[in-house]
C-alpha cells in the first residue's frame, strides 16, 4: 500500500519515497517482500503518489486515493488479487523477509491484524496516535495485515521491525537509528 498523502510527514517527497538512511521507504519494503516467501507483489498506488508509481518496477494497482480502507477495497476488487493476501504499508522501513514470514506463519485462516504493544512504540520513541485496547492490552496497528475470507483474528508481535512506521520526521530519525 503506497498511495497515501503522508500529511503528517513534513516533507516535499511523497511519503513512500521519503528516504530513510538514504533509501526510499518503499524500496526497503519491496526488498523485504522479495526476501520473504511471498510469490507475487503488487504496488497499490493512487493519484496522491504519482512519482511513487513511476518509481516502482512492479505491477501497479491504481486506486482512487480516498484513504487506506477505500483503497484497500479497490485493490481487492482487482482480478489479479485473491485472498488471503498480505497487505503491507510502505512506511515500514525496518521490515525484512524474516518478520514477514513470521506473520505468514501465524496466519491460520480468515483475516489477521498484526499489532504491536503500544508500550514498545513509546519505548522506541515513535508516534503512537492510533493505539487502542485489545484483550486488555494497549496495542497499535502495524500496517501489516492478512486479508482473507472468514473470521478476523489479531496477533500481537512485539518486534521493532513492525513497530517503527514513519509518519513524522522524528519517526524517520528513529528508524535511521535502527538500520
UniProtKB/TrEMBL annotation:
SUPFAM superfamilies: Nucleotide-diphospho-sugar transferases. The keyword Nucleotide-binding does not apply. The keyword Transferase applies. Signal peptide: none annotated. Keywords: Transferase. Gene3D superfamilies: Spore Coat Polysaccharide Biosynthesis Protein SpsA, Chain A. It holds the Pfam family NTP_transf_3. InterPro entries: MobA-like_NTP_Trfase (IPR025877), Nucleotide-diphossugar_trans (IPR029044). It comes from the Archaea. Residues 2-119 form the MobA-like NTP transferase domain. One of its GO terms (molecular function) is nucleotidyltransferase activity. PANTHER family: ADENOSYLCOBINAMIDE-PHOSPHATE GUANYLYLTRANSFERASE, MOLYBDENUM COFACTOR GUANYLYLTRANSFERASE. This is NTP transferase domain-containing protein.
Amino acid at each position: 500500500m503506497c498511495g497515501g498523502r503522508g500529511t503528517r510527514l513534513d516533507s516535499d517527497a511523497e511519503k513512500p519515497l521519503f528516504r530513510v538512511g538514504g533509501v526510499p521507504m518503499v524500496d526497503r519494503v519491496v526488498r523485504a517482500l522479495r526476501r520473504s516467501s511471498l510469490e507475487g507483489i503488487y504496488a497499490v498506488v493512487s493519484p496522491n503518489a504519482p512519482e511513487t508509481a513511476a518509481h516502482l518496477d512492479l505491477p501497479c494497482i491504481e486506486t482512487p486515493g480516498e484513504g487506506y480502507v477505500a483503497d484497500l477495497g479497490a485493490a481487492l476488487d482487482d482480478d489479479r488479487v485473491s485472498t488471503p493476501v498480505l497487505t503491507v504499508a510502505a512506511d515500514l522501513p525496518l521490515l525484512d523477509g524474516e518478520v514477514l514470514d513470521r506473520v505468514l506463519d501465524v496466519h491460520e485462516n480468515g483475516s489477521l491484524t498484526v499489532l504491536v504493544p503500544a508500550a514498545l512504540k513509546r519505548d522506541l520513541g515513535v508516534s503512537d496516535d492510533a493505539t487502542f485496547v485489545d484483550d486488555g492490552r494497549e496495542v497499535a496497528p502495524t500496517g501489516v495485515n492478512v486479508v482473507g475470507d472468514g473470521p478476523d483474528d489479531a496477533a500481537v508481535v512485539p518486534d521493532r521491525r513492525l513497530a517503527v512506521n514513519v509518519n513524522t520526521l522524528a519517526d524517520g530519525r528513529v528508524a535511521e537509528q535502527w538500520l
